[in-house]
Amino acid sequence: MAFRVRTITAGDHAAFNASQPAVSFLQTPAWASVKSEWGSESLGWFDDRDQLVGAGLVLYRRLPGVKTSLAYLPEGPVIDWASDDLAGRLGPLVEHLKRSGAFAIRIGTTVAARTWSAATVKAAIADPGITRLSDVPPDTVNDVAAQARVQLRHLGWRPPKEDEGFSAGQPRWVFQVPLAGKDENQLLKGMNQLWRRNIKKAGKAGVVVTQGGIGDLPDFYRVYLETAKRDHFIPRPFSYFPAVFEALLAEDKDRIRLYLAHHEGDLVAATIWIRVGQHAWYSYGASSTAKREVRGSNAVQWQMVTDALAAGCTVYNLRGITDTVDENDPHLGLIQFKVGTGGEAVEYLGEWDLPLNRLLYKAFDVYMSRRS
After folding, report:
1. Residue 7: in which H helix or E strand, if any?
2. What would the CATH number be for the domain defined by 180-313?
3. CATH architecture of the region 4-112+141-162+349-371
4. pLDDT for res 365
């Protein structure tokens, strides 16, 4: 089948996304408003009956001093990745973006390539001879991802090198809690003993979790800055968060939520939850250094998990991890915290690059690496 790719309206794009079980929030037309420093375009894939069968949000980042751009589809496009003819779908995209002046294209897919259960991850952490989860046999392997990987390589696409490449990318390793077919009791039982004890402890201590609004973002940001200082990461500017809320809420009044955990009037934890269709994400989190013993972070996570279940979600996504299970790696604590939810580590097929001008592609790679 011959597919055609052309620009579509934000309304048509949003309507297509709404027809899908789940789409990354990075592939909603609203996300273009968040990434205002990038150019943007909604694209549609049309079949031989002129029916819209795929869509993608393209973000354009201009290379300084030249009239050409990186064309980036974060966690997209939304096409049939199980097809044995990805050339028929990606070829028209490449031609469209060439005409738009792109020097390189980066696409991403959240097709799960491999998964590791919580039990497998915990066993790997406990084994001093294992330092990376990727060295551990997975619990599941997805043939669809394997087939897509072969096709992408054949078509000239290449995955970014590990821990390298321009810093536009999304995580290839994530931690998710499957929700389909489960109730609250099953989800709680699936968590480890420490998580269950901490959730119970938070309730006994009087931690109260509520939903806030844009007006509560300064409170979130205060604790977020405290978290950034404690955990040694560079925080986003405050202006980013109202922009995200305003853009996503304009598309769907329940697309994004702010959760606040208070103890005796003190804000002890705060998180941001995003949902598109049947997929919910834990996007940002913050916690105070004081009153860590009341376990506000566990309480607010549990509230988000149960709310995702109530909203009809099949996946609760805790976002990025690394594949380290080395006890000396500072990132180990992140996967240890998330594995306590009883979910699974997932390796996506991930992001792939197609250089159209190799010299400019390399120059942009260096430019973004220096910026990061």
Report:
1. strand 4-7
2. 3.40.630.30
3. 3-Layer(aba) Sandwich (3.40)
4. 77
Which regions of the chain carry the CATH code 3.40.630.30? 4-112+141-162+349-371, 180-313
What are the angstrom distances between the C-alpha of 135 and each of 99, 323, 340?
Answer: 42, 9, 21
Rounded CA gap, 71 and 98, in Å? 9
Does pTM top 0.85 for this prediction? Answer: yes
**What tokens were used for 124?**
């790997």
Q: pLDDT tens digit string along 272-292? A: 999 999 999 999 999 999 999
CA-nearest of 337, 234, 222 to 268 is 222
Nearest alpha carbon to residue 7 among 96, 70, 71 = 96
Q: How far apart are the first and last CA of the chain?
A: 42
40, 58 contact by CB (below 8 A): yes
Q: Are 359 and 322 spatial neighbours (Cβ–Cβ below 8 Å)?
A: no
295's torsion region: left (phi>0), alpha (psi -120 to 50) or beta? left
Q: Locate all alpha helices (DSSP H) within 62-212, ordered by sequence.
A: 86-99, 118-126, 143-154, 184-190, 193-205
**Distances from the Cα of 100 to the Cα of 32, 87, 119, 199, 284, angstroms:** 17, 19, 48, 52, 34
Quick one: tokens of 277? 């269709």
- Distance between CA atoms of residues 353 and 152, nearest Å: 10
